[in-house]
Amino acid sequence: MQFLFPAFLFALLTLAIPIIIHLFYFRRYKKVFFTNVRFLREVKEETSARSKLRNVLVLLMRCLAIIFLVFAFAQPFIPGNSDLRQGSKDIGIFIDNSFSMGALSQDVPLMEVAKKRARDIVQAYAVDDRFQILTNDLEGRHQRLVGRDEAISLIDEIALTPAVRTLDQVLTRQNQALGQGVNDIKVAFWISDFQKNITQWATPADTSLQLNLIPLQAVQERNISIDSVWMESPVPMLNQPNRLIVQVRNWTGEEVEDVRLTLRHEGQVMPVGTLSIPAKESVKDTVSIQLQRIGWHEAELQITDYPIQFDDQYHISLLVAEEVRTAIINEQAENHFLTAAFKSIPYFRAENLISRNLDYSRLTGYQFIILNELTELSSGLSFALQQYAENGGNILVFPSAKASLASYNSFFGAFPANAFTGFEARERIVGEVNVEEFVFREVFENKSANLRLPTTLGNFSWNRSGTAAEETLMSYRDGSSFLAKYKVNQGHLYVCAAPLAEEFGNLSRNAEIFIPMLYKMAISSGRGQKIAYTIGDDEVISADVPVLGSEIVYRMEGPGIQFIPSQRVTGSRLFLTVSNEIPTAGIYRLKKEGENPSLAEFAFNFNRKESDLAYYSISELKELAGNRATVIEADAKASFEAIIGERNQGTVLWRWCLVLVLVFLATEQLLLRFWKV
């Protein structure tokens, strides 16, 4: 047996007090009258013996009470192992406050159990020990060592957060804070549900750090989440049925039925339907949303699920533009079929431009650019178009029969796209349309019906290149491409093998193909704003807003928060970096500082990384930890103050000492009250 505070043993000298009182205690005798004095000697001897025995027992009880009271202050313990080290300590406590800790442990959220565990750990250590309280937020105030009272106050303030950290990041922060402490003994605790997708860490660099894992697990691992939402069409259209694709995932090990899906838009909540989702699978559903006004629209998809609810909503923002601007770049005269085609499509505005009078800086203002039979592509125009496509623009090329192959192939090579090898003046018939690609998907009601496909009287042949990722949209009967598509960063390049003029084909007169083709190409832009962003992802947000100069300051307003994000102006676009400034899911509006109208709206959703409630079991966690950490098991209702105290000091005996003090004092009172002499 050892003592945590052996100096208190000097208080055993107080044992002299009851002994001195006992030795110098003079009893007062009282008179007893007897009718016959011959029994006096016998009574006197018997009474004296009983009195001495009682007094010795009372003295013994008092001495034992003092001895064990002194022992209680000295805090005796029996060492549990040879690794126990005495002295002041620096203790780091990580409390996992991610959304998965909102699951229930019996009737209490895991977060509350974790906070109670943390408080018990703090109470188990001495008053002169120092503590670091750390959460997934990695706040600056948590990067220092504090006393016991402040540590408990910090624990009480912890709430659930969308932030998710790997244990490698946690260990790095703990090593930094504990390394600043003055004490040689350093101990770290991790209180978490230990989800498999975040529980990976390397061997601690500081081998003197005693790492302890405290696993908490929910009684029921059940969660349904809206995994993601995206638009089928890249550009939302006015008064059109815009289709949203919603993916809902079942993270549990059994099938769930009747999951209700609803859509909130324009202040109305509309039921979409119910879903049945197999175990560990996801299903997709299509939601049609009607946008009946120009401007920004806010919408929210929602399911009903309990108890994990952070991933039950998915916010989106949609911009319905007043018009889709198209530039038709001509050699000289415009093509009347092109102009008429765009006039027949509502909300499209086409402008005919002459190639030799182009202002390249204006090209970024168009969503769609058509090169109509240009004989030659200048290097300046080629470079401007390449930058336009990389930033999300769409380009459609109808070559001239007299095209300069050198200039065209130089232009194609920058993307890269397949080169032209020469013009062939012969009649050919288009044999197939790729109805699975976006441009022609769902354009024709009956895919198997005989379509009137275009015929050409002359076309360019292609030189196939292994570096060009071509997707054929329409092909001739021999399998060669008539209309090809190339993905260019965020934009697209569409190339037709034949000129558009009537003398070389009838595509412009084939309205059932030509007009839907132009419409879908124009709205296939990848430059349109994303409908949703993920909180915590390190990505740059771009906005098409009037940029008047770099000195203009923009601010973001969201649910209960305003802040000025990091901003950068490049050309006519504004780029924003929000880092970790978004605290909660919802719609955030971009406004010019000092003005109220919204310039743009951005939807932010919580990261779905915490949706997967797959935990390490105790045995799996022990195997993963190996000799790098100790896994501490305990019942949810167990007192961690006693458990940690015993691990820190061995078997703690001071509580038993107090119990014995009370027992000895009670025995003394019983002797005095009921033992009459």
Please give a structural write-up.
It is a single chain. By secondary structure, the chain is of the alpha/beta class. It folds into 5 domains: 2-81 and 655-674, no CATH class; 89-220 and 614-649, von Willebrand factor, type A domain (Rossmann fold), CATH 3.40.50.410; 236-319, Immunoglobulin-like; 324-522, Class I glutamine amidotransferase (GATase) domain (Rossmann fold), CATH 3.40.50.880; 533-605, Sandwich (Immunoglobulin-like). It is built from 12 helices and 36 strands. The protein has a 9-stranded mixed β-sheet, with helices on both faces. The chain is elongated, with a radius of gyration of 41 Å. It starts with a strand and ends with a helix.
Low-confidence parts: none
C-alpha end-to-end distance: 41 Å
Structural class: alpha/beta
Q: What's the domain count?
A: 5
Shape, principal axes of CA atoms: elongated
CATH class of the largest domain: Alpha Beta
Q: Helix count?
A: 12
* Biggest β-sheet strands, sense, barrel: 9 strands, mixed
Helix content: 10-25%
Write a brief structural summary:
The chain has 677 residues and is α/β, with parallel strands linked by helices.
